[in-house]
């Protein structure tokens, strides 16, 4: 029997019999069974209940040393599929005559000042009406680039800064800014971008590391794995089990366990997360907070690996990685790229990695290279032919010079001359445009041109290669994942909520001394104004309790925008958990305030009015929290949010009906009075108090006047 049909544990007859009995189960039951060496679990154990100890045994057996065993482990998975004739989905990406252009202001007008912002709005309107000429500078980022990205081959994107590498990756991933002018065509297996969802089919790994600092490395990757789902792995495993059963093949129990666990949606502790932690070398800091400017956490290089890991835990088949070596030493970069190479070659993924100055040993891991300079492709093809092309152009790489460094300098006007090898010809600077034109006549360029001239046979595309669903899992599971993460963040930020409770306790004690009931009478209208002041002070205290939402919301916005653009979840699912989970805190805060101040101040003693007063304050607090979250989401940074928020709060207070009486508000400002949410809350608590029986004689006195 082939070495991959049974494990080395075959000598243990009891384990082998367990595997054989498991194979006789119906497919739907079989997929959720797990047999682990050294575990007391029987066949009835469900993969959903895979414990930490069992998971550790499985991982240790699969890959004790990731950089040595990873290749062998992936080969076992591929061999299992090959034995029953199953093919993994592959993606071939083509881009033809791709042009990306932009218009931007230059000089002092490009500075982000209030004057430039205001003038920019008016200028855009006038330009749209063709009343003024467009004075923005036209910039060409990518100029007529074409090429093919093959699956199963590692592609290096090389070029100097500002050459258009990030724009090319974004264009291939379908994530370009809509304000850019784009022409040309990008296809996946012959399908245009509008025929599928490129954001779920491919993944763009940004050069910026944006994470929630309060979460650990393991929690960050586990959340990413949970919301991205398992893609088509479940269907693939069902088909694989049916074929193996028909061929009477007993799979390797270790590989079978891993594939079952990684293909089961809703698994609490996803095995793939620990596997990615191992291959990225993050096991040592897996339970360390990621950290940010205010929280001590992992290093910059480790954050870069976490950014890469967020994509590796998902089911995407095409990856575009932008400057993943920033902050990493050459050894760590080599290990990461080597792990990606194993996955790419064995699992036939499509991978493009942009690196600025890769070490020679890292460069040797790549199969193909795209040399980009000044928005044009000087060379694209196998790495072994790149030196041949430039020697054909008259440039030779010195023996002791790294190929990657040579390629970045040979297109530079400042460094090109030193590599000129044709001594019988006078040197002249050869532009990137000339390199691009010469490459089209080079045998590699002609081969790419001939391939692009023949349309891709769409019938060869695997049915599950291109994603057609916007999100990896259902809305219910997405809500559960976001609720779990938000609850964890609230526990990590528990000091904020403890401080808020302490703050409202202190303010309640101060209110009890200022508005003490022995000095609060109900004899005249002036006494009513004193009670009115106490109610207004209660109102603003409860409202300002929501101001902490501004910095807490702004701190999480970058992560939200990144994960929203990657289609981790829709915005409405992200916004619900913070609101729901903070309602109990609102009940507690308002409960402390009302229990201490209501009877001490001397409000109407009727219990029904007490309950209404409590409910109204809860509603006011929820309104204020929502208002401050809206201000934070609109402003997007602390300066704008505080400026805009101050204006909104002053308007609400001034036109709320207490500071300025409605009778004195001008007619053209009446709309602001009715829009002010503070007005409705204030009128509600005032009516609740002054329509009570204890104020009936004062009301009669007012009517007589």
Automatic annotation (TrEMBL):
The keyword Nucleus does not apply. The chain crosses the membrane at residues 495-516, 528-547, 579-599, 611-632, 638-660. Keywords: ATP-binding, Membrane, Nucleotide-binding, Repeat, Transmembrane, Transmembrane helix, Transport. It comes from the Eukaryota. Gene3D superfamilies: P-loop containing nucleotide triphosphate hydrolases. Residues 126-399 form the ABC transporter domain. GO terms for molecular function: ABC-type transporter activity; ATP binding; ATP hydrolysis activity. It is found in: Membrane. Its main location: membrane. It is a multi-pass membrane protein. GO terms for cellular component: membrane. Belongs to the ABC transporter superfamily. ABCG family. PDR (TC 3.A.1.205) subfamily. This is ABC transporter domain-containing protein. It comes from Linum tenue.
């Amino acid at each position: 029997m082939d070495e991959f049909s049974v494990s080395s544990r075959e000598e243990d007859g009891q384990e082998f019999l367990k595997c054989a009995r498991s194979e006789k189960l119906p497919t739907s039951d079989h997929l959720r069974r797990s047999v682990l060496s050294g575990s007391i679990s029987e066949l009835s154990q469900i993969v959903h209940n895979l414990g930490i100890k069992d998971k550790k045994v499985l991982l240790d057996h699969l890959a004790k040393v990731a950089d040595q065993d990873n290749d062998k482990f992936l080969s076992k998975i591929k061999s299992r599929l090959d034995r029953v004739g199953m093919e993994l989905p592959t993606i071939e990406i083509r881009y033809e005559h791709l042009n990306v252009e932009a218009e931007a202001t230059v000089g002092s007008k490009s500075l982000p000042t209030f004057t430039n912002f205001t003038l920019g709005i008016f200028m855009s309107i006038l330009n749209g009406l063709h009343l003024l000429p467009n004075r923005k500078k036209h910039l060409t980022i990518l100029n007529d680039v074409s090429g093919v990205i093959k699956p199963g081959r590692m592609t290096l994107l090389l070029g100097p800064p500002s050459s258009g590498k990030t724009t090319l990756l974004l264009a291939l991933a379908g994530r370009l800014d809509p304000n850019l002018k784009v022409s040309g065509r990008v296809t996946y297996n012959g399908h245009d971008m509008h025929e599928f969802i490129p954001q779920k089919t491919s993944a763009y790994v940004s050069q910026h590391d944006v994470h929630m600092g309060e979460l650990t490395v393991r929690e960050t990757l586990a959340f990413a794995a949970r919301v991205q789902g398992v893609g088509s792995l479940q269907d693939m495993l069902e088909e694989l089990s049916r074929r193996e059963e028909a061929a009477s093949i007993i799979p390797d129990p270790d590989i079978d366990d891993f594939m079952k666990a990684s293909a089961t949606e809703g698994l609490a502790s996803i095995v793939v997360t620990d596997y990615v932690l191992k291959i990225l070398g993050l096991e040592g800091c897996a339970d360390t907070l990621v950290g940010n400017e205010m929280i001590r956490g992992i290093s910059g290089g480790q954050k870069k690996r976490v950014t890469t890991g967020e994509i590796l835990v998902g089911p995407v088949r095409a990856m575009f990685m932008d400057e993943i070596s920033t902050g990493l030493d050459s050894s760590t970069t080599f290990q990461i790229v080597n792990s990606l190479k194993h996955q790419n070659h064995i699992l036939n993924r499509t991978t493009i990695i942009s690196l600025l100055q890769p070490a020679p040993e890292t460069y040797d891991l790549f199969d193909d290279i795209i040399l980009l300079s000044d928005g044009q492709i000087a060379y694209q093809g196998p790495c072994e032919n790149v030196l041949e092309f430039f020697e054909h152009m008259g440039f030779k790489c010195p023996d002791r010079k790294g190929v990657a460094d040579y390629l970045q300098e040979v297109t530079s006007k400042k460094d090109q001359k030193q590599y000129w090898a044709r001594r019988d010809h006078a040197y002249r600077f050869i532009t990137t445009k000339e390199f691009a034109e010469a490459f089209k006549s080079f045998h590699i360029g002609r081969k790419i041109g001939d391939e692009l001239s023949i349309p891709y046979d769409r019938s060869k595309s695997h049915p599950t290669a291109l994603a057609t669903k916007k999100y990896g899992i259902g809305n219910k599971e997405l809500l559960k994942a976001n609720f779990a993460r938000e609850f964890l963040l609230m526990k990590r930020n528990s000091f904020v909520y403890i401080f808020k409770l302490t703050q409202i306790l202190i303010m309640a004690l101060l209110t009890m001394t200022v508005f003490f009931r022995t000095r609060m009478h109900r004899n005249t209208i002036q006494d009513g104004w004193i009670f009115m002041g106490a109610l207004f002070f209660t109102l603003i205290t409860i409202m300002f309790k929501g101001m902490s939402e501004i910095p807490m919301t702004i701190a999480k916005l970058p992560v939200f925008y990144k994960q929203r653009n990657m289609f981790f979840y829709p915005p409405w699912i992200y916004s619900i958990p913070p609101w729901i989970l903070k309602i109990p805190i609102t009940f507690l805060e308002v409960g402390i305030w009302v229990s201490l101040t209501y009877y001490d101040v001397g409000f109407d003693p009727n219990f029904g009015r007490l309950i209404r007063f409590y409910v109204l304050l809860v509603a006011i607090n929820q309104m204020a929290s929502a208002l401050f979250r809206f201000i934070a989401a609109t402003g997007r940074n602390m300066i704008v949010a505080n400026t805009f928020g101050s204006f909104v709060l002053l308007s609400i207070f001034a036109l709320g009906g207490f500071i300025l009486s409605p009778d004195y508000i001008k007619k053209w400002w009446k709309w602001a009075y009715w829009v002010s949410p503070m007005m409705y809350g204030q009128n509600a608590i005032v009516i609740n108090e002054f329509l009570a029986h204890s104020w009936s004689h004062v009301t009669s006195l007012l009517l007589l006047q």
